[in-house]
Amino acid sequence: MKKVVSPVQSLNGSIKVPGDKSISHRAVMFGAIANGKTTIEGFLPGADCLSTISCFRKLGVQIERSGDEVTVYGNGWEGLKEPDEILDVGNSGTTTRLMLGVLGTRPFHSVVIGDESIGKRPMARVTDPLKAMGAKIDGRGEGNYTPLAVRGGETKGITYESPVASAQVKSAILLAGLQSKGLTSVTEPFKSRDHTERMLTAFGVELKEDNTTVSVRGLQTLKAQHVLVPGDISSAAFFLVAGAIVKNSSITLTNVGMNETRTGIIDVLNRMGAHLQINNSKVVNEEKIADLTISTSKLSSIEIGGEIIPRLIDEIPVIAVLATQANGTTVIKDAEELKVKETNRIDTVVSQLKKLGANIEATEDGMMIHGPTKLTGGKVSSFGDHRIGMAMAIAGSVASEEVEISDVEAIDVSYPNFFDHLSELI
Ligand code: S3P
């Protein structure tokens, strides 16, 4: 499906940001392995999180959904049954990797498959440590690519040093660790998002955190909870950037999750000189939330690298759009992980923004953007990557002519009402 975005005069108004994708996935999965009835409010009904619901239903868990309210009837670890059907994760890396952590310890056979993009994403970062714990997993490239066949069983704890700062890797190993004998601990080079640690604690699990190491003792059970999902800062990011770069704009985003492992975009906006206000800060379910107001800003370039990268990894496509409107050269480095996201986001961001006249170049571990540039119209593609599609729509709103974006249906993965929200602000 194609969508044409026309240049806008201004963007004004208030938007309630849809539920956080990472937290929605975890609420369903933890509810499924907990004992009792877990209720979820503010669930993101995006395609990725619906894949998690569908997979856990195939594993025998009763899950009801009405809009953004979900009820999960967990029967503990033993409630998971050998699925009759293949578990299809669609486009969702989080479903794949976290679910592998669960399946790796269950005494049955299952097959995990996903779409074309999932088939290219590296899974050995999860299957290797799970195999070291005793899980049997096979697939193309010695268990690196889907389809993956899993036969779980008796597993033992592991002390694992992850070469990448990845919440999916950390979470998969911790989930397996919960079902394994002994202690499991994961250390990562920089701290990745910690929603798993926070939500497991809320579900009654004891875990220990020390700097970038998290440890759990095995054979723990989870108690059902009520989970209130905050808005997704990664979705808010598109409108934060739009508010800063479209002239005569002021946008308020309510209900935004402000977990410090996710707020790299806020730091970037502040460092670039954006007019950003944070109001009504509070804590719900161990997670900080706030309302954010952004208005048209004069921006300066910055360098982005090191420990901040995992705190804004999903926001880099739209940060690149932001940088095209900033004065000077913005350098994004230490971001090789972009190459193994839904697309190779170094390639897709650079090639598509170039089509709109941006002065941008790819580097080995990121990109350099020279600004400010008046973006032009043109034809671009999302390449089936939701965040590329939305970044292009924001670029289109400051371009001089229309921007035609193909494959926009990919946006349903994380923000099904994205274009409705954009229209409401015009
Ligand atoms: C996620 C972790 C990140 C992020 C992804 C969601 C999660 O991936 O990019 O969109 O929910 O744990 P990595 O763990 O691969 O960095």
UniProtKB/TrEMBL annotation:
3-phosphoshikimate binds at residues 21-22, 26, 166, 168, 314, 341. One of its GO terms (biological process) is amino acid biosynthetic process. Phosphoenolpyruvate binds at residues 21, 93, 121, 168, 345, 387. Keywords: Amino-acid biosynthesis, Aromatic amino acid biosynthesis, Cytoplasm, Transferase. Residues 7-422 form the Enolpyruvate transferase domain. PROSITE patterns: EPSP_SYNTHASE_1 (PS00104), EPSP_SYNTHASE_2 (PS00885). It is found in: Cytoplasm. Pfam families: EPSP_synthase (PF00275). GO terms for cellular component: cytoplasm. It catalyses: 3-phosphoshikimate + phosphoenolpyruvate = 5-O-(1-carboxyvinyl)-3-phosphoshikimate + phosphate. Pathway: Metabolic intermediate biosynthesis; chorismate biosynthesis; chorismate from D-erythrose 4-phosphate and phosphoenolpyruvate: step 6/7. Belongs to the EPSP synthase family. Catalyzes the transfer of the enolpyruvyl moiety of phosphoenolpyruvate (PEP) to the 5-hydroxyl of shikimate-3-phosphate (S3P) to produce enolpyruvyl shikimate-3-phosphate and inorganic phosphate. This is 3-phosphoshikimate 1-carboxyvinyltransferase. The lineage of its organism: Bacteria, Bacillati, Bacillota, Bacilli, Bacillales.
